[in-house]
Design goal:
It contains eleven helices and twelve strands. The chain is of the alpha/beta class. It folds into three domains: about 5-90, Thiamin diphosphate (ThDP)-binding fold, Pyr/PP domains (Rossmann fold), CATH 3.40.50.970; about 105-250, Rossmann fold (3-Layer(aba) Sandwich); about 275-340, no CATH class. Strand 8 (about 215-220) and strand 9 (about 225) form a beta hairpin. Helix 4 crosses helix 8 (about 235-245) and helix 6 packs parallel to helix 8 (about 235-245). The chain starts with a strand and ends in a 6-residue tail after the last helix. It holds the Pfam family TPP_enzyme_M.
């Protein structure tokens, strides 16, 4: 999920208390139905019905939206629009800092990860969607750069790593991996350091991953997993930072990464028509540093795996939900965003 603030206008608190049969209900006078529905997909639901609580509710919802990187749902009754509320808190920014890891737990997890990394003969780094969603890319890049370990992305992690770096190895997606040698390298690795994994159907090319849990360490937004040991409450940001500050490249066995090219010149497609194999490598030559790439559900979602990005390209897709047509609204939002006031 992503951090979206969903603000919903609704009938007055008086209409709600009286259970009036407005079109905002299902004809039963129950105004709670839609907010209750949204509790299943939102990390916070704020019903702004009491002026004395509104400021706290808004601040809480915005903080949770940022920290958990998930949607929040805020209802605003018509009779609350012109109500004055306490405004002193506007002078102080909302605290958006993540909770710190317990120091002893964090030290222990880092020690465990270091032990396995130092012992591994062919370790690799695999970056996935939640590394992007939870904003730890600076920490990921610092670790990749310091260690020099072969670093791969999943389809939902596309764009997380600068694809011009020498240790960038391509996209790992089981049978859909690109370049072709990626699958063998990752699946034969004796230690996969997986950051922000989201092993959904499309993201794993139909669950075609063939990596062993015994050879895996997973870092997540609110816990870590080392082989079969779980460490709840160990957030990946703190673990990544301490791991990077502690580890030394010369104590690791870093293997060469496969070469990732756009394959335009090496393309052997002799078809007189434009094919997928011909098209997607050439998209990489069209792109520029800092571009935003939106791929529609379907062919583009999968074809973009074969495109090598310039630095700082942001890739947006619906690999998880497969929402057909989503790219239209996304492109519209991206077009309007630079025009909006800061």
């Amino acid at each position: 999920m992503i951090p979206v603030v969903h603000i919903v206008g609704c009938p007055s608190t008086i209409s709600q208390r009286n259970g009036m049969l407005l079109h905002h209900t299902l004809g039963n006078g129950n105004f709670e139905i839609f907010s209750n529905m949204n509790t299943e997909i939102s990390c916070a639901v704020a019903k702004l019905n009491r002026p004395s609580e509104i400021a706290d509710q808004i601040d809480y919802a915005l903080r949770e939206c940022w920290i958990q990187s998930r949607p929040v749902y805020i209802t605003l009754p018509t009779d609350m629009i012109n109500i004055e509320i306490e405004g002193a808190r506007l002078e102080t920014p909302i605290d958006l800092s993540e909770p710190e890891n317990d120091p002893e737990k964090e030290d222990y997890v880092v020690d465990v990860v270091l032990k396995y990394l130092r012992a591994a003969k062919h370790p690799v780094i695999l970056v996935d969607a939640c590394a992007i969603r939870h904003r730890v890319l600076d920490e990921v890049l610092a670790l990749s750069d310091k260690t020099g370990l072969p670093t791969f992305v999943t389809p939902m992690g596309k764009g997380a790593i600068n694809e011009t770096l020498p240790n960038y190895g391509g996209v790992y997606a089981g049978v859909g991996s690109h370049p072709p040698g990626v699958r063998d390298i990752v699946e034969s690795s004796d230690l996969v350091l997986s950051i922000g994994a989201l092993k959904s159907d499309f993201n794993t090319a139909g669950f075609s991953y063939r990596t062993s849990q015994l050879n895996s360490i997973e870092l997540h937004s609110d816990h870590c997993v080392a082989r079969y040991s779980h460490y709840p409450g160990a957030r990946m940001r703190g673990v990544l930072r301490k791991l990077t500050s502690t580890i030394k490249a010369d104590e690791l066995s870093a293997q060469p990464s496969p070469s990732v090219d756009n394959e335009v010149k090496a393309n052997l497609d002799s078809s007189p028509t434009i094919t997928q194999a011909w098209f997607w490598p050439r998209v990489g030559e069209f792109l520029h540093k800092g571009d935003i790439v939106v791929t529609e559900t379907g062919t583009a979602n999968f074809g973009i795996w074969d495109t090598k990005f310039p630095p700082d390209v942001t890739a947006l897709s619906q690999v998880l939900w497969g929402s057909i047509g989503w790219s239209v609204g996304s492109c519209q939002a991206l077009h309007l965003q630079p025009r909006m006031p800061a």
